[in-house]
Write a structure and sequence with these properties.
The complex is a heteropentamer, with 1 copy of chain A (368 residues), 2 copies of chain B (247 residues), 1 copy of chain C (316 residues) and 1 copy of chain D (377 residues). Chain A is mainly alpha-helical and 368 residues long. Chain A has helices spanning 23-34, 38-64, 84-95, 103-114, 116-121, 127-146, 161-188, 192-207, 210-224, 233-259, 262-270, 275-305, 317-324, 336-367; strands at residues 2-4, 10-12. The longest helix of chain A is centred in the C-terminal third of the chain and has 32 residues, at 336-367. The radius of gyration of chain A is 27 Å and the shape is globular. Chain B is α/β, with parallel strands linked by helices and 247 residues long. Chain B has one domain (5-92, 161-246): P-loop containing nucleotide triphosphate hydrolases (Rossmann fold, 3-Layer(aba) Sandwich). In chain B, the strands form 2 sheets. Chain B has a 6-stranded mixed beta sheet with strand order 6-7-8-3-9-10, with helices on both faces. In chain B, strands 2-1-4-5 form a 4-stranded antiparallel beta sheet, with helices on one face. In chain B, strand 4 (60-65) and strand 5 form a beta hairpin. Chain B is globular. Chain B starts with a strand and ends with a helix. In chain C, 37% of the residues lie in helices and 21% in strands. Chain C has 13 helices and 11 strands. Chain C has helices at residues 3-10, 36-49, 65-70, 85-90, 132-143, 156-164, 175-183, 212-231, 238-241, 247-253, 259-263, 269-277, 280-287; strands at residues 13-17, 26-27, 33-34, 55-59, 76-82, 93-109, 123-127, 148-152, 170-174, 191-193, 199-208. In chain C, strand 7 (123-127), helix 5 and strand 8 (148-152) form a beta-alpha-beta unit. In chain C, helix 2 (36-49) packs across helix 8 (212-231) and helix 2 (36-49) packs antiparallel against helix 12 (269-277). Chain C starts with a helix and ends in a 29-residue tail after the last helix. With 377 residues, chain D is α+β, with helices and mostly antiparallel strands. Chain D folds into 3 domains: 2-40; 72-162 and 241-271 and 299-372, MetI-like (MetI-like fold), CATH 1.10.3720; 169-226, no CATH class. Helix content of chain D is 68%, strand content 7%. In chain D, strands 1-2-3-8 form a 4-stranded antiparallel beta sheet. In chain D, strands 4-5 form a two-stranded antiparallel ribbon. In chain D, helix 11 packs antiparallel against helix 12 (343-372). The chains are: A mainly alpha (368), B alpha/beta (247), C alpha/beta (316), D alpha+beta (377). Chains A and D meet through helix 1, helix 2, helix 8, helix 9 and helix 12 of A and helix 2, helix 4, helix 5, helix 10 and helix 11 of D. The structure holds adenosine-5'-triphosphate (ATP) (2 copies) and magnesium ion (2 copies). One magnesium ion binds at residues 45-46, 167 of chain E. Chains B, E: InterPro entries: AAA+_ATPase, ABC_ATPase_HisP-typ, ABC_transporter-like_ATP-bd, ABC_transporter-like_CS, MetN_ABC_transporter-like, P-loop_NTPase. Chains B, E: Belongs to the ABC transporter superfamily. Chains B, E: Pfam families: ABC_tran. Chains B, E: It is found in: Cell inner membrane. Chains B, E: It is a peripheral membrane protein.
Chain lengths: 368, 247, 316, 377, 247
């Protein structure tokens, strides 16, 4: 940029003088960030000591002395991890009992589901299309995993492992969104009865543990249906996940709606738009866009919550891992299962969380 | 006033809870008039102007806009809002739409006009506020002055009979105020009925037909600018003018 | 209509099983279920459809297993569920025939030097929630004036781990489950299963109450597999045995008589079942006995002719 | 007539009436279904079972529970008390840990903040159920009773739990009354005499401690301390917290603290930058501004999100049954349900119990929040 | 300039990333002078004034305040901050403390003054800014003008040698501007060294000793007000003045 000073003298914009990396700067960095004061130094040393004693042992147990390949229990070393069963069962953890010939359907379901994330990333694509995709996603997953239309119908009991986790997580996420929007609007409306019913529902569900709802669905929901009608346990669980997580989403969306300046609504009203048009064209597009990061972290919560269906005997990824370690051959290995499950969830949730944080930063940047 | 009366307020009262925000307001505005409302902060200027298109509901008295009385009837209120255009202090442009979409919003969703026709109308008005070349930008990419001009154009798309302005320049940097006032001047010249809440006394002096001075929810003075600036009837108005013109 | 009609019309049978119990039901690396309970289900499916693969396994936890039967979520429950009068009488479900005779036992560390439950006064005992074992242990100690501290842990893996770590002094469960758990321990011989059986635990399949045709099918399929062992009919030789001349065998296999028709099935129902899974002895050996890493004795589960309790009603 | 339906008030009323009618109809429909279904299945409903003998043991109970005589009602009480005890301790730990992790994370020490970052990220990205299992397996690696960690001869840590010395109150009314009267008098006096609020609080605390100490010396037979001792299989005397309880608390409070620390960190960062600058511009040191200006303001916005974290802590008690901690879900919703088969009733009781506890918690936090609000905003 | 120089800037440069925010700024301010900095938005006025008490660190050149050079030395910076008082656009009062506590905060925590003595000092200054009767209120309970006066009082408690103002009136309603300017006038009269970023040209005309005009990070004109308002040296300043004084 080269502005001309009006007195005639040019104003030069310069780059800052480059500073080079040197030993001095490293020492300075260490001094400032690790040994700033005597208290700091003590803490630094303590942490180094702790890591120094624990880390090598842990790494040794996990990797260096661990058994990775072999045929059976006999090949395992007694005082280190034994990863053989994990390798043997890895397909089961991913696909569950899904018929082997149809596993391409699971793969494409994963692809279709994961595609929603980059879709949230691009700003070019109109919001209508993104929302359309998200609402269409459950149908797509349904057809792929459960069958119908062109595909062979697959029994719900064939859903297990990661496939089930994924199925529950994504479908509950997508379907709870519209419910939560209605709840959020209901909670904010001026009509008192409507509002109190919504508030009551939200507060009540927030106060009660999900697993009691899951038990409700698994034990007594059938009793409330007309005789002879029975709903598959998977759908009942899905139903619970949808209506429970909608409550948390409703709070997120309510916050986002409140964050839309009141002036936006007034401007729309002033032009003669009614309530629904104002909400649909002015408020919701802004609120939804701003709530994407919060919704992503809500999704992480929901994804983690799907493990609870294990308590009902549904074998999602954690249940599947547990079941295989009950196999006569692998009885007695206690730590490997939980470690694998936590590693899986950590990798999945952490990456999604980072992605959400990135989107949030970007939204904040564009606001200024 | 021989001309047709388009805004008629009759002993309008409004309360916020116990707080008496508007007290017995009487006011009649003729077609083509430019009215400037001024008064100290909290005196109820915004409340008054927002009652005119029912963004706030008044509690007592009658308000009649273009022969429609404001009531509980939803259809009537929609009609009144179509007869009035409003410009806000903070522009309130829709940040997720382009400038053009902002301007066609009402046309499309209220009047149900097809997109191409709406675009034409909007382009016309954007050119009128001298911003035709920015139509594909988003509000966030414009300066405050430009945004406010878009907001005016947006309000004009619905071809309102009456324009309401609530401090249209007070959120602007000094440099940008003049460009917005410019547009308001030309509107006034073209014979638009305008009701403006503003502290821009220059504008008031030059273009207002009458100045309404408010204090604590009441209108305490209505005079033409010549009179108001030279010898205000009330002591309060004098003090106010002194303060506002001091610096 | 009766469950049998319903199942036939549907073309697939839904069977409730345990989500992971060594020897009784565990998934293999392909996700196919294996185990003693699982094979009973397969046998029933084979008897009904002539095809053991027309079956759907639904995993159940101990709380919702009986409800699932009542609400028709599953057609039969083969989940190591003890036959008790309360369950049969009250909950809208019916027992069939015992499939595995078990008894609740206690396991302790050998180093404790305990030889009988009487010596466990004041000990902490690990058990599972919502099972009969929880009530049995209470009744047993109470009736003998002994005291104990219960530690109720939901999962069997956690429970075993707790026992191994001396979190509890003894662990109680069905003897078979204890034996399986012991098998998985680093040093199985350091643990003893105390000789007393504090309860009778006949385990077997449940069906929904009021479906007599269906209950008969499940009951008699199980019996047919037991009978087959007695008659020496195995998975391998069942085709030859079709040509057998022994009246017991040909009646069982449906070459003669109308047993299957009377149950509302194909006359070859038992043949189909045996062809699919083998006789009881084979099933046992495959899943619990020498064919598995569990190495159980037949014990009570031997044929009555060998000193066990397995006794099929006559196929006449 | 048409204008009647365009009237705003009429419309609002109509919409609400229709909605209410739908909700009521739905509820009625479900209840009717349940009634017919139950009578068809021959199930009886009712709460009589609460007064029957429960006949199962509860592994850890703070109230007296005897499997030989106690009823299902008593089992519910024991579960409630367990839930409450768990909630109080876990909420306390959650708060402390959240603060600690947040402060660590904001520290300038690179190692310290990285450690906090790793811990928080691990904790919050793994399902709580996995945490509970992992911690439980870990607790089993603690030494057995005979090799218990000896904590200064008064406490022991083993895989049977944490044995602590306990205070035994030999209830006697008079000393307590004297104590309370004395204390009230002091409070009243101080209210009048000491003007500064902060100093008054400090003085109050000080005198209370002195009073309690002197009282326990004066009436020494009232209070005695019981120290755990190894007898037979187990520790006797004192007070033993079972590992299920401890590990559930550890798992739940670390998990919640990872969320809590983000809340705290977020609200510290959300205090406007101008506040720090204004403090610095006065020449005040950075850490004083932090302690006196930033953190007090952050506290105002922390309470609502912390409330929902606390509610989640309380709800997590329901997962305790996985590792053998018997809260209401374990007693009423687990063993009682199984033994009596009264599923609807048991689950209803469990839901109402949690709802009740959480509403109280929310109400308390709400009052606290109101008290903390900034004036004039 | 014969008087003692209290602020001395020597070829000061600052970058935000690659953006060159301050370019070769040279400026010397004598004791008792009142300097007004003006210029279009984004020209670096705030950046400059914030460099003076090290709220932003400059990258090149030297800044000397009351004979202390700004460096990495924490002690020096604390000293400099004690020599300067700063008033912000958005007041930045501590909302959780009473007005009095706001004013005694520095006294107590920097100078370690006992509370009673600090209260006395603070009350004195609060009376000076005509707000003595509000000392037990919280900032949220005061109007913007009152808050800004408290902020000035708070800055004055540390008896600074130099007062820095960063658009102290631009967040205020027109009526409140005058009460804040009033205080600034009296400060200026009392001989306080003041550096003000402001758009209040009335104040600049009357009280500034010199006006510094900035554009794109450079100082392009420094003149006394008589000269600056009548015939600015640069074209850019003229355009700016035209716009700002137009209405
Ligand atoms: N929604 C509301 N609830 C309660 N009181 C309100 C509300 N809106 C405005 N008021 C009060 O009504 C009075 C008039 O407000 P109004 O906004 O009309 O003033 P104004 O003249 O426009 O002031 P300004 O110049 O600051 O915009 C004020 O005292 C204000 O506090
Ligand atoms: N923290 C920052 N990071 C990056 N750029 C910044 C930062 N602060 C300011 N800038 C940029 O530096 C330039 C000068 O900013 P400054 O705030 O000093 O302007 P100003 O003259 O005070 O304007 P205004 O009148 O709007 O307050 C602007 O272009 C601004 O975008
Ligand atoms: Mg206003
Ligand atoms: Mg600035």
């Amino acid at each position: 940029m080269n502005d001309l000073n009006f007195t005639g003298k040019p104003i030069e914009a310069r780059e800052p003088a480059a500073s080079q990396l040197s030993i001095n700067r490293v020492v300075e960095w260490v001094k400032r960030n690790l040994f700033n004061s005597w208290f700091d130094s003590i803490i630094t040393l303590l942490i180094i000591l702790l890591l120094g004693t624990v880390l090598p042992k842990a790494l040794d147990w996990l990797f260096f002395s661990a058994t990775f390949s072999g045929a059976g229990r006999a090949d395992c070393s007694p005082d280190a991890a034994c990863w053989i069963p994990i390798r043997q069962y890895i397909d089961y953890y991913i696909y569950g009992p899904f018929p082997e010939s149809e596993q391409w359907r699971v793969n494409s379901a994963f692809a279709v589901g994961l595609f929603a994330f980059p879709l949230l990333f691009t700003q070019r694509i109109p919001q209508k299309i993104v929302i359309g995709y998200i609402l269409f996603l459950p149908v797509l997953l349904w057809v792929l995993l459960k069958g119908g239309f062109i595909f062979e119908d697959i029994s719900t009991s064939a859903l297990g492992g990661l496939t089930l986790t994924f199925f529950l997580g994504i479908i509950a996420m997508c379907l709870s969104l519209p419910v939560s929007i209605l709840l959020a609007l209901g909670r904010q409306t001026k009509l008192p009865i409507l509002r109190w019913i919504c508030v009551g529902y939200i507060e009540l569900v927030r106060c009660i543990p999900v697993i009691t709802f899951l038990f409700m669905a698994s034990l007594v929901l059938q009793l409330f249906l007309p005789g002879g009608v029975s709903i598959d346990v998977l759908f009942r669980v899905l139903f619970v996940l949808i209506f429970v997580s909608a409550v948390y989403k409703a709070e997120i969306i309510r916050g986002a709606i409140q964050a839309v300046p009141k002036g936006q609504i007034e401007a729309s009203y002033a032009m003669g738009c009614g309530y629904w048009k104002t909400m649909a064209y002015v408020v919701m597009p802004q609120a939804l866009r701003n709530s994407v990061p919060a919704l992503i972290s809500n999704f992480i919560g929901l994804f983690k919550e799907t493990t609870l269906v294990m308590i009902l005997g549904l074998l999602e990824v954690m249940g599947a891992v547990k079941a295989t370690f009950n196999n006569a051959e692998w009885l007695g290995l206690h730590a490997e299962g939980p470690i694998v499950v936590s590693a899986f969830f950590f990798v999945a949730c952490f990456s999604i969380a980072q992605y959400g944080a990135y989107l949030e930063r970007r939204i904040r940047r564009t606001k200024h | 006033m021989s001309k047709q009366t388009v805004v008629q307020l009759d002993r309008v009262n409004k309360w916020y809870g116990k707080y008496h925000a508007l007290r017995d307001i009487d006011l009649a505005v003729a077609k083509g008039e430019t009215i400037v409302i001024c008064g100290p902060s909290g005196s109820g200027k915004s409340t008054l102007i927002r009652c005119l298109n029912n963004l706030e509901q008044h509690d007592e008295g009658g308000i009649k806009i273009c022969d429609i009385t404001i009531s509980e009837n939803v259809k009537d209120i929609e009609k009144i809002r179509r007869h009035t255009g409003m410009v806000f202090q903070h522009f309130n442009l829709f940040p997720h739409m382009t400038v053009l979409d902002n301007c066609t919003f009402g046309l499309r969703h209220v009047l149900g006009m097809p997109v191409s026709q709406a675009n034409e109308v909007a382009r016309d008005l954007l050119n009128k506020v001298k911003i035709g070349d920015q139509e594909q930008k988003y509000p966030g990419q414009l300066s405050g002055g430009q945004q406010q001009r878009v907001a005016i154009a947006r309000a004009l798309t619905m071809s309102p009979d009456i324009m309401l302005f609530d401090e249209p320049t007070s959120a602007l940097d000094p440099e940008m105020i003049s460009e917005v006032l410019e547009i308001m001047r030309s509107l006034s010249k073209d014979g638009m009925t305008m009701i403006c809440v503003t502290h821009e006394m220059g504008f008031a002096k030059e273009f207002a037909d009458r100045i309404v001075f408010m204090e604590a929810g009441s209108v305490i003075e209505i005079s033409p600018p010549e009179e108001f600036f030279v010898k205000p009837k009330t002591e309060r108005a004098k003090v106010f003018l002194d303060q506002i013109l001091a610096h | 209509a009766d469950k049998l009609e319903e199942v036939k019309a549907r073309g697939v049978m839904k069977c409730g099983i345990h989500p992971g119990k060594a020897g009784f039901s565990t998934p293999d690396t392909k996700g196919n279920w294996t185990g003693l309970d699982v094979e009973l289900c397969k046998a029933v499916a084979a008897a009904v459809f002539g095809d053991a693969s027309k079956i759907e396994f639904i995993t159940m936890n101990s709380r919702n297993r009986l409800t699932a039967l009542v609400t028709d979520e599953i057609d039969m429950l083969a989940r190591s569920t003890t036959f008790t009068a309360t369950r049969d009488g009250l909950n809208g479900v019916d027992v069939t025939t015992p499939w595995f005779y078990d008894g609740q036992a206690l396991m302790v560390k050998k180093e404790l030097g305990v030889n009988s439950i009487e010596e466990l006064d004041g000990a902490t005992i690990c058990t599972y929630p919502g099972t009969t074992s929880e009530k049995n242990i209470n009744d047993y100690f109470e009736s003998r004036g002994l005291s104990y501290k219960a530690l109720i842990v939901e999962g069997s893996a956690e429970s075993t781990a707790a026992y191994l770590a001396n979190r509890c002094d003894a662990v109680t469960n069905d003897a078979s489950a204890l034996a399986a758990d012991r098998q998985g321990m680093p040093d199985p011989s350091a643990n003893v299963i105390l000789p007393e059986r504090i309860s009778k635990e006949p385990l077997g399949a449940y069906v929904k109450q009021g479906n007599d045709d269906w209950r008969q099918v499940v009951t008699w399929t199980a019996m047919a597999l037991i009978e087959a062992e007695g008659l020496g009919v195995t998975q391998d030789n069942v085709d030859e045995k079709l040509k057998s001349t022994k009246p017991d065998v040909i009646r069982l296999l449906g070459t003669e008589g109308n047993l299957g028709k009377n149950f509302g099935l194909d006359n070859q129902w038992a043949y189909n079942a045996i062809k699919a899974v083998g006789n009881y002895g084979e099933i046992f050996e495959r899943n619990l006995g020498e064919g598995s890493s569990l190495n159980f004795e037949r014990g009570l589960n031997a044929l009555y002719t060998n000193g066990g309790l397995l006794y099929a009603y006559p196929f006449r | 007539m048409q204008s009647f339906f365009y009237n705003r008030k009429v419309r609002d009323a109509l919409i609400q009436l229709i909605f209410l009618a739908c909700v009521c109809y739905g509820a009625m429909y479900l209840v009717m279904n349940a009634a017919t279904n139950m009578s068809n299945a021959g199930l009886t409903s009712g709460f009589d079972f609460l007064f029957q003998r429960a006949g199962y043991d509860i592994s850890y109970s703070l109230v007296h529970y005897d499997p030989k005589t106690s009823t299902h009602l008593m089992a519910w009480v024991a579960g409630m008390v367990n839930t409450l005890a768990f909630a109080v301790v876990a909420i306390l730990f959650t708060t402390v840990l959240s603060l600690l992790l947040a402060v660590m994370r904001l520290s300038h020490n690179f190692l310290l903040s990285s450690v906090s970052l790793c811990v928080v990220e691990y904790m919050r990205n793994v399902p709580i159920l996995v945490h509970i299992t992992v911690w439980y397996v870990f607790s089993l690696t603690l030494p057995s009773v005979r090799q218990a960690f000896n904590l200064g001869d008064v406490s022991y840590l083993s895989n049977r739990g944490l044995s602590l010395p306990s205070v035994v109150w030999n209830y006697s009314l008079w000393p307590s009354i004297v104590l309370i009267v004395l204390w009230l008098g002091l409070c009243f006096l101080m209210q009048k005499k000491v003007p500064s609020k902060g100093r008054r609080r400090l003085l109050m605390l000080f005198t209370t401690v002195i009073l309690i100490l002197s009282a326990s010396l004066m009436f020494s037979p009232v209070v005695s301390i019981s120290v755990p001792q190894l007898v037979g299989f187990n520790f006797k005397y004192g007070w033993t917290l079972p590992p299920e309880f401890i590990m559930l608390i550890v798992a739940v409070s670390t998990y919640s603290a990872s969320h809590g620390s983000e809340v705290i960190r977020g609200s510290i960062l959300a205090v406007s930058k101008g506040q720090m600058e204004a403090g610095l511009a006065l020449g005040v040191k950075r850490n004083i501004v932090m302690n006196r200006v930033i953190i007090p303001q952050a506290l105002h916005s922390i309470i609502p999100p912390m409330t929902s974290i606390y509610i989640n802590v309380l709800k997590a008690a329901a997962l305790g049954s996985v590792v053998g901690f018997m809260d209401i879900m374990g007693t009423m919703g687990g063993s009682s349900l199984n033994i009596t088969g009264q599923a609807i009733e048991c689950i209803l009781i469990v839901m109402v119990s949690y709802g009740f506890l959480n509403l109280i918690l929310a109400a308390v936090m709400g009052r606290f929040n109101n008290a903390m609000q900034l004036k004039g905003r």
